[in-house]
Amino acid sequence: MRRAGPTLHHRDVFTRLASTPSVRVTRRVHDQYTRPLEVTDRVVDAQQDAPAYAFALPNRTATPATAGASR
């Protein structure tokens, strides 16, 4: 069974810009009901910069598993 709460969907699109060393990075984030939560549009100069993404999971309280316990 899934836990309650929003389910986020990310889509990143990298597009090379014509006749320049730049890349356009478009990120779209929506929830399980396809409601837009974030739209980010960046242009990165590929000669000076590199797009770097860091992903993290939300903090969860660690609960030790016990033998025979069901979740």
UniProtKB/TrEMBL annotation:
It comes from the Bacteria. This is UbiC transcription regulator-associated domain-containing protein.
